Amino acid sequence: MTTRETTAFLALDDLDLTLSLSDRFMVMAYGAIQWPWLLRSLDGGRKKDKAKLLAYLDLPQDALPNLGSWKADTHFLWHIVSAIEEMRPQQVVELGCGASTFVAARALQLFGGGKIVSFDQHGDFASTTQDWIRDNNMDVDIRHAPLGPPPAGWPGHWYQLSDVPAEIDLLIVDGPPWAIHPHVRGAAASLFSHLRSGGRVLLDDAARPGERVVARRWRKEHHDMDFTLDSQGAKGTLLGHKHPA
User: Are 178 and 208 in contact (CB under 8 A)?
Assistant: First the structure.
């Protein structure tokens, strides 16, 4: 995320993972139908929108890396900023670090001063991202969380989380990558019990077929929450709201 070079088409490799035959089949099947969304995701958003975002956060115009592909697009980053400005959250938890962590940390610095904990499966990448954000005088807590067995009822591999904050105001879901399993991000529901009353969830890449399946299941299983798809931007964002007590 710290590079300003063009982003590679694929996310960072998870070479230590062994996918089951069923998981490999699902990845191949979804890959055959969701290539239009993958091509669209190469667009990280219009340059003027990125410039507007950076100006709003009072950051230099070169503060963010080249967006697009597996990086968050400008529209998703705006959702993060808007949620933080409106909610003034005390605790943000993020799954998958990078440009979104940078933007969230800056928004928290400007709006309320809450804390962010971000988990990522790549230890070196997590460390580099943490250094990049701290070099910009922002406070973050990025933790290495290797992928392993998922919560019951969900496929693929999932972050092996520890010391998750007991109460979460805003949950940002931007990982793991779909190439592990098209429904892999659905396991973020294992953290919904940590959401405070009125808490929110932001799911990136929500326009893809796999994430649409996840959204349907979340709606079916979590009646104390409302979910709305914003299909704008390059990838789409699912907005989740936990009902007030």
Answer: yes
Residues 3 and 70: beta-carbon distance below 8 Å:
no
Nearest-10 crossing angle of helices 123-135, 99-110:
40
The residue type of 202 is L
Each residue of 92-140: pLDDT tens digit?
Answer: 999 999 999 999 999 999 999 999 999 999 999 999 999 999 999 998 9
- Find how far residue 58's CA is from the centre of its chain: 23
Within the chain, strands assigned E span 91-95, 115-120, 141-144, 147-148, 158-159, 168-173, 195-204, 225-230, 237-242
* Average pLDDT of the chain, as a whole number: 88
Listed in sequence order, the residues at least 6 apart from 194 whose beta carbon sits closer than 8 Å to its beta carbon are: 93, 164, 165, 166, 167, 168, 171
